[in-house]
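Design review, sub-item: ligand-bound model
Attendees: FS, YL, KQ
YL presented the inputs for the S-adenosylmethionine complex:
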Amino acid sequence: AEEIGGGDKEVVREYFNNNGFERWKKIYGETDDVNRVQLDIRIGHSKTVENVIKILTDEGPLNGVMGCDAGGGTGCLAILLAKKGVIVTAIDISSAMVAETENQAREELLTGKEELSPAPVLPKFEVKDLESLEGKYNTVVCLDVFDTLPPKTLYYDLLKRVGELFPGPSKATWAYLHAEADVERALSKVGWRIRKRGLITTQF
Ligand code: SAM
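KQ shared the predicted structure:
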């Protein structure tokens, strides 16, 4: 977050309220109108979400845990956590993403489509960026926000540039890619320690 200041943050907000919103909503959704790369990202993402749930449940029961999904996008994880009894706060810089999360959450958690016991608590939704996040939580998840996956490698940079050469808005992912080492350095600067590490791979 330190590196994204002023104008850059506006660009991020603008992107995730418009093209980025459409693109990621499609990728994280269930419709068939995705290309091979997008389908691969969808599969990788759902494996990642499963993995996050496993990491959290390994720590103990989720019921009643205070959790924050920071940069939660369209709410895939936030809704799943709420179904498992987590009291969720879902924040995102993009108001479009937050509105989508709220719609989905109301539909999935309040309409009784699934019988959930105990009855889930509707998450709290807030449009705000990571730097303004406040409050006390047992756990804060920030998934696919720094875009460290795939790792920043020469190969991926090249692939991304090749993608950008082709016309059409949805070919290249507009994203900042942060190298894993940079993320680690930023975390250790504020006193955080890496306890678990994992790599989720798909075809691309
Ligand atoms: N975490 C969600 C998931 O895994 O399903 C969404 C991932 S999506 C690729 C990245 C999300 O991060 C977008 O919804 C975007 O609006 C949000 N985001 C990017 N920069 C942010 C910031 N500085 N503060 C809050 N949210 C941010």
